[in-house]
Sequence to fold (480 residues):
Amino acid sequence: MKHLTEWASLMAVAAVMPLGANAKGKKAAPAPADTAARNLPNIVFVLTDDLGIGDIGAYGQRTIPTPHIDSLARAGMQFMQHYSGSTVSAPSRAVLLTGKHTGHSGIRGNGERTLADGTVYDYSLPAEEVTVAEILKSKGYTTGITGKWGLGGYPEEGGAGNQGFDYFFGHQAQLDAHHYYPKKLYENGKKIELDGKQYSDELTTQKALEFIDRSAAAGKPFFLEFATTLPHAELILPEEEMKPFEGKFLETPFPGAGYGAQATPRAAFAAMVTRIDNNVGRLIDKLRETGQLENTIFIFSSDNGTHLEGGHDPYYFNSNALFRGTKRDLYEGGIRTPFIVVWPGHVAPGSVSYHVSAFWDFLPTVCDIVGADVPKGVDGISMLPEWTGCGEQPKHDYLYFEFHEEGGKQAVIRDNWKLIRLNAKKLATEPDAVRYELYNLSRDPKELRDVAAEYPGKVVELREIMDRARTQSENPAWNF
Fold:
């Protein structure tokens, strides 16, 4: 296939790109683009919405072909134990952009507010948070995001334009992103009125391709977050994209509950995953067409585990790759996510990593690549040594997660031991209602056997980490 051939041909090219030291400190002052900036790599991050780790061929999917994404895995490094920022969308995206896990990040859960004009916005990412986009702008990058934002809206501090992005097109609020034939989208601060007959993902994909065109022509390095809303419910596509899957599955029609009705939800889901794969191919084509493929870091991931909404049947498709749990769980199926990185001349093709990593590692990795200081308070660790094979890769002492729905949940992973706290919201008032589960992920990655009673010392050790891993949030809804 031409995409794989193109990637493979670039593996022999040892592109020379400056790699900066990873030093902690305050954000550097903005600097104009110069020759050094133009030699820095572009970064394209494809972030899918509720795509399960098992929905991709490279991670075991056998029903839905994903040739373009699989070609990324053959051309770069595939991570086998990478975790999203959270088990739902908004906090996961905040973690990715700020490098702070949910014990410290400014957004720790989904939530929305209705403004005086009737506009519904998610909680705003605080102004004091330093994002990847702001760091890259300080190094001369042009920054853009198309698709779903979900971290506040214009003109508030949480708008994408106030968080380091030069360009935004798509859904500002998560609620709007639940539907694919919207009446409005936003381009920067301007509302774009629509007639409800245009498929939103096609519009945001076209804008992503145009952003690459403009950025390449300008001769500056660029960062694009392509935050597609696929395959989040509702399960619907243009009719011509559904036709290849007609009659291929035994179906149970979805009557519509919060989302549109779908007579053939399995066919629709398969078509959505296929559309994601095709869009990856379109982005690769555009990078090649503009001469940017060789000097681009291309990353593919998902914001959390597979969902159970809109009629999707994750167990039919093995969407969670046999891991326990789905979206809103802190079991592996809710937070272990695909993560593939391609960087010609720096990341070995066909490599597989078992390094334990998470969304909050992205920001310090970017700082390492472009030679920026890591902002204070960041929880992540640069993955650059693992990506390139140069130097010793530091490891996390632990990973921490929290979730504020369904009674509240927390999780800590350390040395492949995992402790989950359930009913965490009752910790202060009804401690007897709080429940702990302990799993050994090395021997039991599917989390089938709770061994808390057999290893009480390990429960105490991880519980102490759990309690000190977080600070109080200014939003009382995000405290235990």
The radius of gyration is 21 Å. The longest strand covers residues 42-48.
